[in-house]
């Protein structure tokens, strides 16, 4: 929330909640995505945007009208859209003679473009063309990246990071084993990137872990990488900053055994056992005569006796 | 016979077990990297391009199956629990670092009051929400609707002795309240302006205004004239042109509250400056000077006391003309003193 937003006070509780939801948070919400169609978009581009929309639902907004803009030349309108619909990921689809069937995958930081990678669609099979049952909407997919390019090449590495960010879905602490239904497989080979989407079929194997069979569910893309716009090092570093409150500090001197009992280690000063109060018995009580005698004797002598 | 059959059964069971394991194991040249928090696997093995070109679809399918099997094996190995008739595994934290969506939230800058309160050590005191209202004989809220001792609901106000009887006391009260609200809003805006870097417009030149006044235009002209390499030294003046007023520096005062250490250092600096006008005492130099003076005095005294005995001799020499021997002797004895003496005489 910038300072200008702070000047205008929200008039209702609802407006206040809305602004709070949009303000920067320590633990962030899931990133939303906008899908924007360019001034000219082919049938392939339109359909692929629609299929990406069905993969990304419900954290996604599909812009259905044309938008005459070129993200690699002028990013302002995209930044405006992202601010408008509070989305930090975007896909921009366009089609022209020089770059046919073009999809630009990108992400924002603080409503400014961080990374943008242009992928050309060489081959596309839409979701509808696969005649099989699909997995339910908003299933968290298993992501797999294959190919040594994803390790070696800097641009591919960033693309991998971008795609993980794009497709990973909500952050969860636990997952239902029977709900592992959807796999997105990215393969980089021969200068192309193959994106395939499969449905998981779990077969009995006899052990606890099932044998996996896959069934292609669609959509499937064959991408080629075109232009890229990667964030500068300092901007990227700034975007990777973690708030201090989010980093959990390890608590010292607390341990747990196998039964879950918590133990604490306490450090304390050595106790002076000479001053320890024992049971009060009359026989042990010091008589006044004894006390007087003890007073006259030197402590050294007392030790000897 | 029975023993053999048991062995057979065991061998068969072992074989079955191996077969089952074979169905869910996959051999890879390089190990996969996993990020189970994101349910992500990365296969760094390079693909066989020739095989791939021949049967790309089948090859991709087989590769995806193998990788998925490996990832699922890992996920099934995680600690699991049963939640409402569903087996659920706990995912570990994500290891892949991804950039944030928005910058890290900054703490709100303290307001002017908060700063002052901190400086003075004023702490917030919690007041009770309910107060006893004598008029209604019940506990009521301190603030807001139906509050206790609500002075806007009074039907009669006692006229103060000093007040003008014609003045409407009710209207006065409402006006005062409105003033307080406005003041609070102004202070809120001021606090925002103070905490943000916004609103620091350069105060010189022709700032965009709807209708610039004469003085603003004059100021802009003055600035433009001075914006040359020679700071406007060689700029011509119009006939009968006056210097614009109010272009000099304005005095700026330190804030009343704030940095005490800066204030202290400033005061000390000033004291030092004032002290620098006084002559300073260089102790070594003064001591040296004193010693030299004492020496010279002592020397002078000695000469005076020795003068009758030696002085005659010397004088005789001088009187007796310029004998080579005598002249030499005089010099050897200490020409300096003699010279000084001559001067004093």
Automatic annotation (TrEMBL), chain A:
Region described as Disordered: 275-305
Compartments where found: Nucleus, Nucleolus
Biased composition range(s): Basic residues: 277-288
GO cellular component: nucleolus
Nucleus in keyword set: yes
Occurrences of domain Brix (ranges): 31-234
GO biological process, one term: ribosomal large subunit assembly
Keywords: Nucleus
Main location as per UniProt: nucleus
Database matches in InterPro entries: Brix, Rpf2
Protein origin, superkingdom: Eukaryota
An MF annotation (GO) of this entry: rRNA binding
Similarity annotation: Belongs to the RPF2 family.
Protein's name in the database: Ribosome production factor 2 homolog
From TrEMBL, chain B:
Cellular location(s): Nucleus
Compositionally biased spans, kind Basic residues: 328-345
Biased composition (Gly residues): 309-327
Stretches for region Disordered: 226-259, 273-345
GO cellular component terms given for this protein: nucleolus; preribosome, large subunit precursor
A Pfam family recorded for this sequence: RRS1
Ranges annotated as biased composition (Basic and acidic residues): 234-246, 273-283
Top-level taxon: Eukaryota
Family of the protein in this entry: Belongs to the RRS1 family.
PANTHER family: RIBOSOME BIOGENESIS REGULATORY PROTEIN (PTHR17602), RIBOSOME BIOGENESIS REGULATORY PROTEIN HOMOLOG (PTHR17602:SF4)
Name of the protein in its database record: Ribosome biogenesis regulatory protein
Protein's organism: Leptobrachium leishanense
């Amino acid at each position: 929330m910038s300072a200008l937003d702070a000047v205008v006070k929200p008039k209702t509780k609802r407006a206040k909640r809305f602004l709070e939801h949009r303000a920067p948070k320590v633990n962030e919400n899931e990133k939303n995505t906008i899908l924007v169609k360019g001034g000219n978009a082919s049938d392939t581009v339109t359909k692929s945007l629609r299929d990406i929309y069905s993969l990304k639902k419900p954290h996604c907004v599909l812009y259905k009208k044309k938008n005459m803009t070129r993200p690699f030349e002028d990013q302002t309108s995209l930044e405006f859209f992202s601010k408008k619909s509070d989305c930090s990921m975007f896909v921009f689809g366009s089609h022209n003679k020089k770059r046919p069937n073009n999809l630009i995958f990108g992400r924002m930081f603080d409503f400014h473009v961080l990374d943008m990678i242009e992928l050309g669609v060489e081959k596309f099979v839409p979701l509808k063309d696969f005649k099989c049952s699909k997995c339910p909407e908003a299933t968290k997919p298993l992501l797999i990246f294959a190919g040594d390019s994803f390790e070696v090449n800097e641009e591919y590495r960033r693309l991998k990071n971008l795609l993980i960010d794009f497709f990973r879905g909500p952050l969860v602490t636990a997952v239902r084993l029977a709900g592992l239904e959807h796999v997105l497989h990215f393969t980089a080979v021969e200068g192309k990137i193959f994106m395939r989407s499969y449905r998981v079929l779990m077969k009995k194997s006899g052990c606890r872990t099932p044998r996996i069979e896959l069934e292609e569910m669609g959509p499937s893309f064959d991408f080629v990488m075109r232009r890229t716009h990667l964030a500068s090092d300092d901007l990227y570093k700034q975007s990777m900053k973690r708030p201090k409150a989010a980093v959990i500090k390890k608590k010292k001197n607390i341990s747990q055994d196998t039964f879950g009992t918590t133990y604490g280690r306490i450090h304390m000063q050595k106790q002076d056992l000479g001053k320890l109060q024992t049971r009060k018995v009359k026989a042990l009580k010091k008589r006044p005569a004894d006390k007087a005698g003890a007073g006259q004797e030197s402590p050294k002598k007392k030790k000897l006796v | 016979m029975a023993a053999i059959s048991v062995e057979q059964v065991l061998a068969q069971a072992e074989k079955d077990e191996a077969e089952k394991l074979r169905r869910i194991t996959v051999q890879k040249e390089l190990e996969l990297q996993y990020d189970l928090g994101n349910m992500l696997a990365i296969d760094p093995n390079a693909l066989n391009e020739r095989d791939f070109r021949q049967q790309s679809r089948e090859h991709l399918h087989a590769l995806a199956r193998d990788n998925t099997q490996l990832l699922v094996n890992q996920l099934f190995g995680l600690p699991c629990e049963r939640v409402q008739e569903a087996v659920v595994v706990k995912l570990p934290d994500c290891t892949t670092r991804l950039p944030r969506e928005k910058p890290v939230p900054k703490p709100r800058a303290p307001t002017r009051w908060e700063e002052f309160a901190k400086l003075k050590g004023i702490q917030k005191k919690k007041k009770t929400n309910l107060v006893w209202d004598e008029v209604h004989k019940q506990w009521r809220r301190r603030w807001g609707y139906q509050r206790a001792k609500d002075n806007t609901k009074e039907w009669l106000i006692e006229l103060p002795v000093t007040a003008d009887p014609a003045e409407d006391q009710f209207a006065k009260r409402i006006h005062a309240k409105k003033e307080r609200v406005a003041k609070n809003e102004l202070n809120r805006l001021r606090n925002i302006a103070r905490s943000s870097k916004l609103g620091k417009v350069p105060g010189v030149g022709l700032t965009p205004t709807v209708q610039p006044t004469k003085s603003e235009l004059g100021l802009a002209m003055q600035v433009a004239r001075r914006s040359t390499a020679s700071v406007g030294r060689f700029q011509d003046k119009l006939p009968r042109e006056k210097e614009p007023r109010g272009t000099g520096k304005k005095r700026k005062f330190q804030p009343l509250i704030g940095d005490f250490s800066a204030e202290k250092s400033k005061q000390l600096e000033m004291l030092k400056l004032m002290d620098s006008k006084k002559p300073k005492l260089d102790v070594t130099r003064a001591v040296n000077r004193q010693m030299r003076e004492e020496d010279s005095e002592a020397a002078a005294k000695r000469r005076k006391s020795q003068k009758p005995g030696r002085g005659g001799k010397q004088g005789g020499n001088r009187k007796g003309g310029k004998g080579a021997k005598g002249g030499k002797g005089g010099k050897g004895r200490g020409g300096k003193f003699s010279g000084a003496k001559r001067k004093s005489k």
